[in-house]
Design a protein that fits this description.
The complex is a heterodimer. By secondary structure, chain A is mostly beta strands. Among the domains of chain A are: 3-127 and 253-301, no CATH class; 328-363, no CATH class. Helices cover 10% and strands 41% of the residues of chain A. Chain A has four helices and 25 strands. In chain A, the strands form five sheets. In chain A, strands 2, 3, 4, 5, 6, 7, 8, 9, 10, 20 and 21 form an eleven-stranded mixed sheet that branches. In chain A, a hairpin with a 5-residue loop joins strand 8 and strand 9. By secondary structure, chain B is mostly beta strands. In chain B, 9% of the residues lie in helices and 52% in strands. In chain B, the strands form 13 sheets. Chain B has a 22-stranded antiparallel barrel. A five-stranded mixed sheet of chain B has the order 6-12-11-8-9. The chains are: A mainly beta, B mainly beta. Chains A and B meet through helix 1, strand 1, strand 18 and helix 2 of A and helix 10, strand 50, strand 51, strand 55 and strand 56 of B. Strand 1 of chain A pairs antiparallel with strand 56 (901-908) of chain B, so a sheet runs across the interface.
Chain lengths: 383, 923
């Protein structure tokens, strides 16, 4: 538990009344070009992947991959796995399956194009306990004027040996456009639309650091760790919302790395800010102690749990409507071309209310075709 | 002059009538710029009267007035008001005019008595303020010109040195005056009164004119015939500037003639002139307007004096240390302005009787109760309501003062429509009380107590509270005129508690406390006119409970942690001598020797020698028994000052002092957070040692109405504490593994120009200073910025302050406060990188960039009610605007990764102008 965090929250009472936060574009000062290594080893089927890049000036945003490096992963047994650079620049993969095992130690070796050699500490693969449950509760957050669903993670380790946890999540939700599209206008003909472009799925994934420890408890239990808050200010809770939580077991060293990174990149802005400092990982230049390498190489198994939240499970709520501007026009067949030129799209053909002839309901493409905002491929896990 | 005085005395003996018995004379007339003697001739024609006066007295005195059957008495009063002339109508119809003195029919005043009672009696008919002031002044003149005989008259006046001692007090309240200067001109010998208002002056016997000076009080003098050693208590009259008069006070040359340098003194009156923030008069904020005093930012807890950290200030309230001198996370100081008499800030040249912190002494002196009558004061501001009252228990002997202050923010929070806020709590209060008892001429006893309490909770979740508690008992005994001692017993405590019960599994209760018990004996000895010696011993026993956490409720799984108590004993002996070598040269030689012991019972972690101290190098533990000395340290602390008068208006001062500190506050946040803890020195936490030299040039201008000073200092600090990256300071039983030792260096030059009196008063200061830190440990993680010096978070090289007060009339005054300083250094990100779908920032060198410069202008208007003395209560309104220009001063610039992108933000605390209104009253 982080006591200073409570104080930070409390200090915000004052800030509510007095302070003023303004956003600004920070200029770059004293830029340092450093190697960034993102590497995580698990026992899954997914290929082992290492991402190499360079740090960039803070007023830019281009990803600069570190290309042409040779990377290998060594096991304590002496076995070495060489990675190859994939088609995506800066991403290196092991072409096979490493078959990493709990309790074994692994070390990462990198030689960059400029000849510098880097090594990680030797990391022992940890076993991650199962997630007990992912729960949710409808909560209102009046301070921020928000309504929505707070999602919690609960876990524990029977053997009392994990103590440090990290989570990542992926969220998916479905939505409908206001107009279904049964027909398609093609070469002057009305054809039946085979594809469903009315019902789609959107997804997102965690961008913030979620870590917790049970070290201050008598048992290795994490109860109701608040993972994220899904607000009604978006369309996420409109129909069905699903979240998949991945759990990683950390050790004290990696836990400290993540909490430090969180402290200097996510929790600043209070009266009691810590001094931001370099967050050192476990990767070093073999020949130069002083060179800072960003990133942390870690290894553990991953456990997951997915839940679904249906709107009907919640108290009556109002979610954001992203289609409030959508209007439709009903036209005759010979007007379709004209409307298309004007940026409209055919939704469907229907019988006119005024006589025995067909009319055509048209609207803006984004109001009909949900693939502008998401994908109409139903995810495998979707119930 | 003397003949005249005798004449007055003679007359007063002859006269048997008083005003009341006079038969009624009425007269009429119309005079326009009529010379006084023609006016008299006219009255003499109308009435059977004869005027007697010296022609010199009425030289160029003209009368412009209309009288219509007006009584002679009233008419003359009107004519003579505002002049130095008084009149008396004798039995045989003679009108006698006197200059400067009122002829009194009462018995001569017993000068050894306190004149206050006399004043009180003469005030009975007084309705108008000005008139009462005049009476006081007249009475004062009598006091000043009558010869007081002291001692055994049979002693020959042979120029032998004799000691005169006594107390200097406020004539109205009987409160002792601190730092009042009492001296004779020939030979020039003088002393300043101490914190009890006590002085001891050794001068040749014979006739002298004693001069008295005290800031905020009218200059006065006493004629004495000193035969042998004796006592003389003197009352001084508070300086209230009348409506039509501008008093130019001369010889306010304390800063030239005094020894002290690096000392700033604020009295209650000057504090009231500073525009308040959120309606609260705040001594800590006012201290920030003084040269050499900085803070990390607006609303930040703690002050930084001449490059020292916030824990290096010895904050004293009636000699008892205060560990957290603020309320509300540092927004308000914990001192109720109604009970404060004065505040002294020693930045350099610290006398030997202070010790224990290395940067400064911030001493708050509270008032003593009014020992003549019951009075009270109070006020209402947007944040607090406060009340203080005082009065005699036994008139002139024993008195009390009580003061309390409480926020009513809880009530405000409840009114707000936002449920999160009205489920939140934020409140504080403080209480103060002091009893003074003057048992007899030789013995006085003082007892004081203080308690402050803060409590916060946010949306009914975690509740946080902290409290300061202090108590002190002091006995002052005067052994002889030349020697007195003060025996003190002091208790100070600070504790905080955090609890949370929102999530039952994690519900906890966490406590921290520090207590100290100290005893000290201070002696003051005045062997002769050239020496003023003080010496004493002190000892402080510390008892720290460095933290505990316990589960709250049955379901809670919180692991109980009880850190072992820490005990320490800090003792010191000191002696100091202020030696006036010649009228031009004075020196102060002080030596303090402090001893420190870290005591058991305690389990001490052992580490492999010759290696870094961290969790992995721990080799074992050693258990020490109750009272066993685990670690000890001691060292001399030299305190030297010298003053050389270049001439009557300027002097040069030099000082050196060394200070040692055995208790440290651990804080790895920019501003001090309320959960920061104090830690005693032990085997791994070396005592902090500070050395400072300073040199100052003091010069007064315009008859000493303007004081100027230029002071330079250079200070080094050893064993400054810093922290390894990711240090966890709370509930850590291996703190030594998280700290690194640094070296501090600061230097600066401070310029101050001060005008204390007159319609326009205030001060202007400019400081150039640097505060640098170097952390260069042997092992990885123990070095910051490659072991180079880097600026401290409060390093603000240029600082300018202008505080001015303009008195439009006695009822209306306007104050302005202008502050400018260089922006504080911050650690700025030098690179950005992508890691796990998110942009992250990389920070490297600490404090290499600065936030924008700080500028603020505040204004306040003080409106007093009318000045009738006999009114039931006196009230005043203070309208203040903080940050008039609404300048958006940055408190910090920070960066946050949010939704995958890094955004830069600028946090301001008071970005808008904040108007407040405060109502104050006295009764």
């Amino acid at each position: 538990m982080n006591f200073s965090r409570y104080i930070l929250i409390l200090a915000n009472i004052i800030l509510l009344f007095t302070n003023c936060v303004t956003e600004f574009d920070p200029p770059s000062k004293g830029y340092e070009n450093l190697l960034v290594v993102e590497a995580f080893l698990s026992d899954g089927e997914e290929p082992f992947e290492v991402k190499l890049s360079r740090s960039i000036p803070i007023d830019t945003s281009a990803f600069i991959p570190e290309r042409g490096a040779s990377i290998s992963l060594s096991e304590e047994t002496g076995e070495v796995h060489n990675l190859v650079e994939s088609l995506s620049p800066g991403i290196y993969q092991f072409p096979g399956v490493i078959n990493a095992q709990i309790g074994k130690s692994y070390q990462l070796h990198i030689q960059t194009n400029d000849g510098n050699q880097y090594e990680s500490s030797s990391v022992t693969m940890r076993d991650t306990p199962e997630i007990d449950s992912v729960t949710y509760r409808y909560e209102e957050k009046p301070t921020a004027d928000l309504k929505g669903v707070q999602i919690y993670v609960n876990t524990h380790d029977d053997q009392n040996k994990t103590w440090y946890y990290r989570w990542e999540w992926d969220e998916t939700w479905d939505f409908y456009t206001p107009y279904r599209s049964d027909h398609v206008y093609e070469n002057g003909q009305i054809l039946l639309r085979e594809e469903n472009i009315n019902h789609c799925w959107k997804s997102g994934s965690s961008t913030s650091i979620d870590v917790a420890t049970s070290k201050n408890l008598t048992e290795d239990v994490i109860s109701k760790y608040p993972l994220l808050y899904v607000s009604t200010n978006t369309d996420q809770l409109g129909i069905t919302y699903s979240i998949n939580v991945k759990q990683y077991a950390l050790n004290e060293e990696s836990y400290n790395y993540w909490t430090e990174l969180q402290k200097v990149t996510e929790s600043l802005g209070t009266l009691f800010d810590p001094q931001p400092a370099t967050v050192l990982g476990n990767i070093y230049n073999v020949n130069d102690d002083a060179e800072v390498v960003l990133g942390f190489f870690d290894a553990s198994t991953v456990t997951e749990q997915r839940i679904f939240i249906k709107r009907s499970d919640l108290p009556p709520i109002r979610t954001a409507n992203y289609y409030s501007y959508c209007i439709d026009s009903t036209v005759n067949f010979n007007q379709i071309e004209e409307m298309i030129t004007a940026g409209y799209m055919l939704a469907y053909e229907t019988l006119s209310d005024f006589g025995p002839f067909m009319v055509y309901v048209m609207s803006y493409p984004v109001c009909i075709d949900c693939t502008f905002a998401g994908t109409n491929v139903k995810p495998d896990f979707w119930k | 002059m003397k003949e005249f005085l005798l004449c007055v005395c003679f007359l007063s003996c002859l006269i048997t009538h008083s005003f009341g018995q006079q038969e009624e004379f009425v007269f009429s007339g119309q005079y326009e710029h009529t010379p006084f003697d023609l006016f008299v001739d006219d009255i003499e024609r109308q009435l059977p009267l004869e005027f007697m006066y010296h022609p010199q007295m009425i030289d160029s005195f003209f009368v412009t007035a209309i009288f219509n059957n007006e009584s002679l008495e009233r008419g003359l009063k009107r004519v003579l008001s505002g002049t130095e002339l008084s009149f008396f109508i004798s039995n045989d119809n003679k009108v006698i005019l006197t200059q400067n003195y009122e002829v009194r029919t009462e018995l001569p005043i017993n000068f050894f008595d306190r004149s206050g009672e006399e004043l009180g009696r003469s005030e009975v008919q007084v309705v108008d303020f000005l008139e009462s002031e005049e009476k006081k002044t007249r009475l004062l003149k009598t006091l000043e010109n009558s010869v007081i005989e002291i001692g055994n008259k049979s002693t020959p006046m042979d120029g032998q040195y004799t000691t005169l001692a006594g107390h200097i007090r406020d004539s109205e309240t009987g409160e002792p005056l601190i730092g009042a200067l009492i001296y004779i001109e020939n030979p020039r010998i003088g002393v300043a009164s101490d914190q009890f208002g006590y002085y001891s002056l050794t001068i040749p016997n014979g006739k002298h004119e004693l001069q008295l000076r005290c800031i905020g009080y009218k200059n006065t003098k006493r004629q004495i015939s000193l035969y042998s050693a004796g006592t003389l208590d003197i009352d001084m009259i508070e300086d209230i500037i009348p409506l039509k008069e501008v008093v130019i006070e001369s010889e306010k040359d304390i800063n030239i003639a005094g020894m002290q340098m690096g000392l700033d003194k604020l009295d209650a009156q000057s504090m009231k002139k500073v525009p308040p923030v959120l309606g609260e008069v705040d001594v800590l904020r006012i201290a920030l307007t003084l040269p050499g005093v900085q803070s990390v930012g607006e609303g930040a807890n703690g002050i930084n004096v001449r490059g020292g950290t916030a824990d290096q200030n010895l904050m004293l309230l009636n000699d008892a240390p205060i560990y957290n001198p603020t309320h509300f996370f540092g927004f308000f100081s914990a001192f109720n302005p109604d009970v404060i008499k004065s505040v002294e800030l020693h930045k350099g040249g610290i006398p030997a009787h202070y010790g224990g912190r290395i940067s400064s002494v911030f001493e708050v002196q509270t008032k003593e109760g009014n020992n003549k009558k019951f009075v009270g004061s109070g006020g209402i501001s947007p944040v607090t309501a406060r009340l203080a009252f005082e009065g005699p228990i036994v008139k002139d002997k024993a008195s009390y003062i009580f003061g309390g202050r409480s926020s009513y923010s809880n009530w405000i929070l409840k009114q707000l429509p936002n449920p999160a806020i009205n489920n939140s709590r934020a409140s504080f209060y403080d209480l103060f009380g002091k009893l003074s008892y003057e048992i007899n001429d030789k013995n006085s006893i003082f007892a004081a107590g203080y308690y402050s309490d803060d409590e916060f909770s946010f949306n009914s979740d975690t509740t946080y509270s902290y409290a300061n508690e202090n108590a002190s008992l002091q006995w002052k005994h005067i052994f002889t005129n030349k020697f007195y001692g003060v025996f003190s017993g002091i208790y100070s405590g600070y504790s905080y508690n955090v609890f949370s019960k929102k999530n039952e599994v994690n519900a906890f209760d966490m406590d921290y406390s520090i207590r100290n018990y100290s005893g000290k004996i201070d002696f003051n000895y005045f062997p002769n006119s050239n020496h003023k010696i003080d010496f004493g011993v002190s000892t402080i026993y510390y008892d720290l409970e460095p933290g505990s956490i316990t589960p709250k409720g049955d379901i809670s799984l919180i692991k109980e942690i009880l850190l072992e108590d820490e005990q320490g004993l800090e003792s010191a002996i000191y002696i100091g001598d202020k030696y006036d070598i010649s009228p031009k040269l004075s020196i102060y030689l002080g030596l303090r020797y402090s001893f420190y012991q870290f005591l058991g019972p305690k389990t001490v972690n052992e580490y492999a020698p010759d290696g870094p101290i961290d969790e992995s190098t721990k080799t074992g533990e050693t258990v020490y028994g109750d009272g066993e000395v685990i670690d000890s340290d001691h060292g001399p602390e030299l305190r030297l000052s010298a003053r050389y008068s270049l001439n009557d208006e300027s002097s040069l001062k030099l000082s050196y002092n060394r200070m040692r500190q055995y208790i440290h506050m651990l804080s790895n946040t920019t501003s001090i957070s309320p959960t920061d803890i104090w830690k005693l020195s032990d085997r791994y936490f070396m005592p902090q040692v500070g050395d400072q030299v300073s040199l100052g040039l003091y010069r007064n201008f315009k008859n000493n109405t303007i004081e100027g000073s230029l002071e330079g200092y250079y200070k080094i600090i050893q064993n400054l504490l810093d922290y390894k990256s990711g240090a966890q300071l709370i509930l850590n039983d291996q703190l030594e593994a998280d700290i690194v030792s640094g070296f501090g260096k600061s230097y600066g030059i401070e310029f101050l120009l001060k005008k204390k009196t007159g319609k326009l008063n205030g001060w202007v200061s400019y400081t150039y200073s640097r505060s640098l830190i170097k952390v260069d440990g042997e092992y990885t993680g123990e070095t910051i910025n490659d072991g180079e010096f880097y600026p401290a978070s409060y390093d603000k090289p240029h600082a300018f302050n202008l505080l001015s007060n303009w008195k439009f009339s006695r009822r209306l005054s306007v104050s302005g406060n202008l502050t400018y300083s260089t922006g504080r250094p911050i650690t700025y990100p030098v690179a950005k990188y992508f890691y796990g779908n998110t942009e992250r920032l990389h920070y490297s060198e600490r404090n290499q960039f600065r936030i924008p410069d700080y500028f603020r202008f505040d204004i306040s208007v003080n409106i007093e009610g009318n000045h009738k003395v006999r009114k039931l209560n006196h009230s005043s309104w203070t309208l203040a605007i903080y940050n008039v220009t609404s300048r958006d001063n940055a408190y910090s610039i920070y960066f946050v990764s949010h939704d995958g992108d890094v955004k830069g933000y600028r946090l301001s605390i008071f970005a808008q102008a904040i108007p407040t209104i405060t109502y104050n009253f006295r009764f």
